[in-house]
Design a protein that fits this description.
The protein has one domain (about 1-140). It is built from 5 helices and no strands. The chain has helices at about 1-35, 40-75, 80-105, 115-120, 125-140. Helix 1 (about 1-35) packs parallel to helix 3 (about 80-105) and helix 2 runs antiparallel to helix 3. It is elongated.
Length: about 140
């Protein structure tokens, strides 16, 4: 029974993490269009920082912790699909790190990338999420 509760909270954490990972690059797209020093720019800075600190970072930590517990309790460690999933989650965590750094870049008014870059970056977590879900549900190998 505990395994199912852990799995439920893991899924809730994943949903929260992904919601933030999908929304933060979209905020960057809009932030690119806001003049530096404007009220809009300052508002985006607050939104980006709060989203990262209050939702994305804690959700990622809970996702990882509960995921490791599920691997251990479920005996999944030798499963090929799990190895592929963990690799994709590591890549997603790297994207998370890049987004965290980008929040600091925008906070310092030092962004040099165009909005189009962030529009394209917004697709990366989506693609990773799709692949991860397929691996978890289908377990192709």
């Amino acid at each position: 029974m505990a395994y199912l509760w852990i799995k439920a909270f893991h899924v809730i954490a994943v949903i929260s993490w992904m919601a933030g990972m999908l929304y933060l690059p979209r905020l960057f797209v809009y932030h690119c269009d806001a003049p530096k020093g404007s009220i809009q720019s300052d508002t985006f800075k607050i939104m980006e920082r709060r989203l990262l600190k209050a939702i994305i970072n804690p959700a990622m930590a809970v996702t990882w912790i509960l995921g490791i517990v599920l691997i251990w309790q479920g005996g999944w460690i030798t499963s090929g699909w799990l190895h592929a999933k963990v690799l994709l989650v590591l890549i997603l965590s790297g994207v998370h790190g890049f987004l965290s750094k980008t929040v600091k870049v925008f906070a310092a008014d030092a962004n040099v990338r165009p909005a189009k870059f962030y529009r394209m970056l917004n697709e990366v977590p989506t693609i990773l999420m799709i692949l991860i879900v397929i691996l978890v549900i289908v377990k192709p190998f």
